Recover the amino acids of this structure.
């Protein structure tokens, strides 16, 4: 069994809006509920997917494409339990943008050396620092120079 993807429902509230959030006691602020977007829909909406596939293409889109090309496996499923194919196309067109961005962001962090948890107890690292045993008393003042500049 894998992670079951559900259709996201977003609540959009104008609670703190400077105009529409100012309501009388007992009145409700405007609230709307909307479906989330796939990664591809989100990138198009934000104007990030419009550039041609060259150096002008948004760096975030290129990173997401590289993540999609690097996928080997995942445990993502549709709401009905059917597996979502582990492909770049599925990443962009079947997965909610927030989940896809979270996965890609974590992938980039791990590529950069992020460790996925604390070191095991058998790790050779973690000995007490030698810095703590170095004396830290103040040094004596240096003597004043005795030579006279010319």
């Amino acid at each position: 069994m894998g992670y079951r993807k559900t259709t996201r429902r977003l609540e959009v509230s104008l609670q703190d809006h400077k105009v529409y959030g100012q309501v009388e006691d007992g009145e409700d602020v405007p609230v709307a509920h909307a479906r989330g977007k796939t990664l591809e829909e989100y990138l198009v909406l934000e104007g990030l997917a419009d550039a041609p596939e060259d150096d002008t293409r948004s760096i975030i889109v290129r990173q997401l494409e590289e993540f999609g090309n690097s996928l080997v496996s995942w445990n993502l499923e549709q709401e009905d339990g059917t597996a979502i194919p582990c492909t770049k196309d599925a990443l962009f067109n079947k997965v909610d943008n927030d989940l896809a961005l979270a996965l890609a962001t974590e992938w980039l962090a791990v590529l950069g050396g992020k460790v996925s948890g604390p070191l095991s107890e058998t790790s050779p690292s973690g000995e007490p620092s030698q810095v703590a045993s170095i004396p830290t008393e103040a040094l004596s003042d240096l003597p004043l120079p005795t030579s006279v500049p010319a």
Notes: Residues 3-110 form one domain. Residues 45 and 85 are 24 Å apart (CA to CA). The first helix runs from residue 39 to 45.
